[in-house]
Design goal:
This is MFS transporter. By secondary structure, this protein is mainly alpha-helical.
């Protein structure tokens, strides 16, 4: 067994060029985050396209976010057990299958099932980060991680104009065929370029823990997404919400008491890890709030008193530069982290997010003002998302990087999925009917900015309490410094 492990480790020194590995993993990250905004351009038309109510069609977006929250930590644990590349390939297969199901569907249920399977692919980002830690030289790790982390925002922002263009000039099903082709391309590149994972943590999979996590998260998200329709104090809302919270508490108690948990709650409870993960919720909330709110306010007619009257494609082009900022900042983030540390980088990112929402609250009535705010959000996410996996990985053993990054991605997904539900509920509650169409009010948009800004402030406060020092990282024994 020892000889086989040594042979496997030596194979890492004969792998493809590290730049190629980083490029392929970055492409898979872009593909996964593209799934978040894939249907944003057609969100308003979904009730008509699928013959369902607006509340029901909201699950075309929410199902993807929920699946991402559930599958990501599960994929991280499976990656640590069975090999990270292998699980990346499985997730890409699920993306292709889900995309084909949605592309062939003409009803709501089929599209929701397909979108849920698409959401599973988000697990490739934390797995990709863990692969980089396993195979890259120390001097290259931070910049590469910053690039992969940035794809969580970049793919969504850059994908918006692509989705808008297809929606404007072609059948909406082509969106899903595009996603299927992208998934197949990434599968082939990962199989060809990314080396087989050799650092594993053998054991049994915690099926009870996985089920508990899935049901608990689903309960909370159902309560948040349907609260405005059912009533926030109604029995179904309280039942799903409080039931989900109670189940997650029981889940945490159970995870502490079994030998091979889905997630090592003790590691997750370390102060740097816990505070980073909690800050991730605020960061994810602030990011996805802009993805939900800005396109709507840009596209609504000026006559409504709340909109800026842009076409679908122009609105997408206003949102897109945030993704370009994240991409440009990714190598800068890696170098900055080497100089000032990831904690300071996270603080800088949170400050940029607070500034973005403060600006749009004060001056958000013109297109250029939305653009400036969105650029600041790009800066904040570019720095913040780069810093979080670095903070996590310096605080956990190397054989737990997949599960630990999966847990961090779970917290980010909690932020994004909660933002989608909360922003939708706030705008729906503030809507008035004009010409038979529900139109959100300007006051509703201002409330969404306040809530998103509060998430950014929470992330900033939590970042300030993260310890500045850390223990030396374990390094892969076969790689030079």
């Amino acid at each position: 067994m020892a000889t086989r492990d040594e042979d496997a480790r030596r194979r890492l020194t004969r792998m493809p060029r590290q730049g190629a590995i980083v490029a392929v993993l970055a492409l898979t990250g872009l593909a996964s985050s593209f799934m978040f905004t894939l249907v944003v351009p057609i969100q308003a038309q979904l009730p008509e396209l699928l013959g369902a109510s607006r509340d029901d069609t909201a699950w075309v977006v929410t199902a993807t976010l929920l699946a991402a929250a559930i599958f990501t930590p599960i994929a991280g644990r499976l990656g640590d057990m069975y090999g990270k590349r292998r699980i990346v390939l499985v997730l890409l297969v699920l993306l292709v299958i889900g995309s084909v199901i949605a592309a062939l569907s003409t009803n709501l249920i089929g599209v929701i099932i397909g979108r849920a399977l698409q959401g599973a692919v988000v697990g490739v980002v934390p797995l990709g980060i863990a692969i980089l830690r396993d195979v890259l030289h120390t001097r290259s790790v931070n910049s590469a991680i910053a690039l992969i982390s940035a794809t969580l925002g970049v793919g969504g922002a850059l994908g918006l104009p692509i989705s808008a263009f297809i929606t404007e000039f072609a059948d909406w099903h082509i969106l899903f065929w595009l996603a299927a082709g992208l998934g197949a391309l990434c599968f082939g590149l990962v199989l060809w370029i990314v080396p087989v994972s050799v650092l594993r943590s053998p054991g049994s999979f915690d099926f009870v823990g996985a089920a508990g996590l899935a049901v608990g998260l689903t309960g909370i998200l159902v309560a948040v997404s349907r609260g405005s329709e059912w009533g926030w104090l109604a029995a179904p809302t309280l039942g799903f919400g409080l039931g989900g919270v109670a189940l997650l508490l029981v889940w945490g108690w159970y995870e502490l008491r079994i030998a091979e948990p889905l997630l090592d709650v003790r590691v997750a409870g370390r102060r740097p890890v816990l505070l980073t993960n909690l800050a991730s919720i605020g960061m994810g909330f602030a990011l996805f709030a802009s993805n939900v709110v800005f396109p709507q306010i840009l596209e609504l007619p000026v006559e409504t008193g709340a909109g800026l009257g842009l076409s679908l494609i122009l609105a997408s082009l206003v949102v897109m530069p945030a993704g370009l900022v994240m991409m440009v900042l990714s190598p800068v983030s890696g170098r900055l982290s080497n100089v000032i540390g990831p904690r300071a980088l996270l603080i800088m990112g949170a400050i940029a997010l607070v500034a973005a929402y403060a600006f749009v609250l004060i001056a958000g009535s013109q297109v250029w003002q939305i653009l400036v705010s969105n650029l600041l959000i790009g800066v904040g996410i570019g720095f913040g998302f780069a810093a979080m996996p670095m903070l996590i990985m310096r605080s956990v053993p190397q054989n737990e990087t997949g599960a630990s990054n999966g847990l961090n991605a779970l917290f980010r997904s909690l932020g994004t999925s909660t933002a989608a539900a909360v922003m939708g509920a706030v705008l729906a509650a503030s809507s008035t009917v004009q010409n038979g169409v529900q139109i959100p009010s300007a006051a509703g948009f201002h409330l969404t900015y306040l809530l998103a800004g509060a998430g950014a402030v929470a992330a900033l406060v939590l970042a300030l309490f993260i310890p500045a020092h850390h223990a030396p990282e374990e390094r892969h024994p076969s790689l030079p410094e």
